[in-house]
Amino acid sequence: MPTAPALTTDGTPRPVAPTSARKAPLRPLILRLHFYAGVLVAPFLLVAAVTGLLYAASFQAEKIVYAHELTVPVGDRELPLSEQVAAARKAHPQGTVSAVRPSPTADATTRVLLSGVPGVDPDHTLAVFVDPYTAKVRGALEQYGATGALPLRTWIDGLHANLLLGETGRLYSELAASWLWVISGGGLVLWFGRRRARRKVRGTSGRRRTLGLHGTVGAWAAAGFFFLSATGLTWSTYAGAHIDELRTSLGQATPSVSAAGGGEHAGHGGTGAGGSLPPRPADVDRILGAARSEGLADPVEIVPPADASSAYVVRQIQRSWPEKQDAVAVDPATGEVTDVLRFADHPVLAKLTRWGIDAHTGVLFGLANQIALMALALCLILLIVWGYRMWWRRGRASAFGRPVPRGAWQQVPPTVLVPLMAAVAVLGYFVPLLGIPLVAFVAVDVLLGEIAHRRGRGTPVAR
User: Fold this and answer.
1) Mean pLDDT of the 249-264 span
2) What pTM does this model have?
């Protein structure tokens, strides 16, 4: 005997979930979330993808634009580093020496970094480029960050990280990173949940072909998106702070060499982060020699003492594979090494964080890394364009942008829904720019459903 259909609160028959939905109760919910996130978060992802594409290309562009400052003809013998520093100071006497980066290769210039130079951003340094063979100054440019970004890359980096809006602008990139893995994961579930025949691209047309392209490219690029999302969150404002707290509580914070003379490694953000005293020319040669004796090969950075009682810090700055991140502290009075920190001794999570960030920024594997990032950025741009095209065509010229049906969460059994909501709440706490928009999505969905219900045009929303 057939069973009468279940009725809603207003007496109309409740839609019966299709067989596929009953077998996979989360699928309609994932589809709904994928739709909302795709429509509302995609603009932020599109900006991140376009600016990320530019940033990945900026490394090679920088070599071309600043070739005169970065490279020199190879000479017979390099001059003592002290003479090169003296030449830089003669050309630019303002400010103080905050670091010196000796020429890392035979055709590269030496960089003498000056802080406190009038007209230079306080967060930047003035890099004076010196020919190591003749001590002639080849130019001076503002530099930013540990990777030595020059004006072109610095501008693109700021555009990608915060839209050139400072700390407030960083919220956009954190929002994009918080949702990229959710959208990618939801797309994977939806794509592989479709029958194989419906995932084909060849021989299809219209919206189905767009869906096939969207799903296929998304499935192939998903692993890269997960990686970009995870690594992007590690230095975000809010989620990044939670990650740092977690690493510190687990004893996995990044250590730094101690310049205080005690010989014990400082914690994350400890001493040795930067100096302010102008080095005596003779000191630089002796300090570099002491670092070489400890096996610190190029490229290195020499940081002067922060005060009269501190030591010099010499640290390797190669972030391409294999990474060189060893550091030593050297007593300026005696030239003796007072502390040594090897990258091999860093905690596991500190190493993984370092590798992840360097791969995310395109320096870990050099040009191959940058090409991979550009390919991922292009994939994301195409996916967003295809996604909006599908949204446009969903209504088939009668209802532009018609969303997928509401009420998907009502099909999820309580035994699944309750633990899922608890997990989402915990995740939303640690990743607030995922949790807050998600609450907003739900609120908007419920509100629109209530409005449609009262107008008698939609499925009522359970209260």
Assistant:
1) 82
2) 0.85
